[in-house]
Amino acid sequence: MDSDIELISDGDGLAVFGDPAAVELFLVSEGLPAKDLGPRRLGSALRAGAAVAQTASEVAANSGRWVKLTKESAQWARKYGLTPSDTPGVSHAMVGRRGSIKKWLQIEKPGLMSRNPAVLANVAGILAQVAMEQNMKEITDYLAKIDEKVDDVLRAQKDAVLARMIGVGFVIEEAMTVRESRGRVDEVTWSKVQAAPATIAETQAYALRQLDALAEKLERKTEIGDIAKAAKEAEHKAREWLAVLARCFQLQDAVAVLELDRVLDASPGELDGHRLGLRTARENRLALISRCTERLMARMDAAAGRANANVLMHPFDAPAVVHSSNHVSVAIVDFHGSLGIEGARESSEAKRWVDAVMEVRDKALETGADGVDTAVRLGNVTLDGAKSATGKLSSWIAERALRRSGDDE
Fold first, then answer.
1. Residue 379 to residue 393: CA distance in whole angstroms
2. Neighbours of 154 (CB within 10 A)
3. DSSP H/E element including 23
4. Residue 184 in contact with residue 44, Cβ under 8 Å?
5. What is the mean pLDDT of the chain?
6. DSSP secondary structure string for all residues of 291-313
């Protein structure tokens, strides 16, 4: 058995090529979960002309597996010293085990893939496709997790743009099924989906505008009661529009997968440039979505901050704002995770009404005799508010605060 393994990475994933037994041993020894690239997928990558016929026959006896590059696996990959190739954004290395040495070590030997630029470019295209297919699966898992029926959300809207989105989804899914069956995307299949990106982009823009509208509405409100209503609306509607955005991104990735197959079939020499263009376009979409969702999160955080500052006077509405803010922020963080957008946000902590009473009282008492008067005045005001808001329980809390301030005198 030839234990030499070829590693090829495009920054998003790592392909491991070699003898099937050696590849399996390598992945097991490194503890890496991997996806089988399959002979059909590899065969399409090797359709680069007669010049690579010998390489194709050599690779045919090997297998290929794909590993998603996370922070942990990327750090692991660096130890093998992958070096840049002539294909932009793609690096490679050869590793092997010699004699009784159990560790996998980098070796100086040209790989079957990396020594042929045409094959390497095609492999890079496959890596891009597999990464997008993996992300499509993660979005499917995300939508299942939030139990959001995207088609139901779309059907509930009266806008014609959203209505067309359902049909576009059906067409793209059909094309993906044909591609899976035939192993390629012919002209007929591509003709059915080539107009889809315009509809998807229109729907994405509409969903982003809806999220911006929720953020702007929150920003315009000044009264805590109005903020609470706007925050509650955002809590319900943001989740739906995030689901629509996730579906848009999923379909855009599917179109890109089909597009790469079509270019490989029709103009293989243009595959590498097309792959890089699709990658840039995808990054731009992620940046746009990230900015919009982070704006909404910032508005929700600001609303929670104003609510916490007024929790004493609004014992019901203020915690409700923080609750809605946390729900929206958690939804956005989950959504970011499904799209691969990095970032995290800690939930705000709503102040309990009684804690706010004691906090203000303690601060007032620290100022001395004037502070006692302040505490009394504060107690009278909060007592009136408490009676209308929380009834006997809140009245008891406010009176208790007054009694404590008298004892401290």
1. 15
2. 21
3. helix 20-30
4. yes
5. 78
6. HHHHHHHHHHHHHHHHHHHTTTT
| Closest to 98 (Cα-Cα) out of 179, 3, 163, 208 | 3
Which two tokens mark 206?
Answer: 């509409």
Sequence-ordered list of residues with C-beta below 8 angstroms from that of 244, at least 6 positions apart, any chain? 150, 153, 154, 162, 165, 203, 207
pLDDT at res. 138: 93
Copy the structure tokens of residue 116.
């042929």
Predicted confidence (pLDDT) per residue in 149-172, tens digit: 665 665 665 566 677 888 899 999
Q: Can you name the residues that pair with 15 across neighbouring β-strands?
A: 8, 66
Distance (Å, whole) CA 66 – CA 45: 14
| pLDDT tens profile 78-121 | 888 888 888 888 999 998 876 655 678 888 777 777 777 888 88
Secondary structure of residue 36 in the 3-state scheme: strand
Q: Are 347 and 330 in contact (CB under 8 A)?
A: yes
- What's the pLDDT at 185? 92
- pTM assigned to the model: 0.78
Contacts of 120 (CB under 8 A, 6+ apart): 8, 85, 86, 87, 90, 92, 113, 114
Q: How far apart are CA 220 and CA 262, in angstroms?
A: 48
Alpha helices in 90-195 (DSSP H): 117-145, 150-156, 160-182, 187-193
Local mean pLDDT, 10-residue blocks, the chain (409 residues): 81 88 87 82 58 53 82 79 88 80 75 76 90 93 75 62 84 94 90 94 94 92 90 90 93 96 88 93 95 92 85 83 88 91 57 52 48 34 37 41 46
Q: Where are the alpha helices (DSSP H) in 31-116?
A: 39-45, 53-60, 71-78
The two beta strands, 63-68 and 13-18, are antiparallel
User: Cα separations (Å) of 89 from 13, 39, 201?
Assistant: 11, 24, 27
State the Cα–Cα distance between residues 109 and 102, nearest whole angstrom.
Answer: 19
Query: Looking at residue 374, what is its pLDDT?
Result: 31
In our burial notation (b when 16+ CB lie closer than 10 A, e otherwise), range 247-270 reads bbbbbbbbbbbbbbbbbbbeebee
Q: Tens of pLDDT along 34-84?
A: 888 877 777 666 655 434 445 555 555 567 889 988 877 787 778 888 888
Whether 183 contacts 42, CB under 8 Å: no
Q: Which helix (H) or strand (E) holds 35?
A: strand 35-36
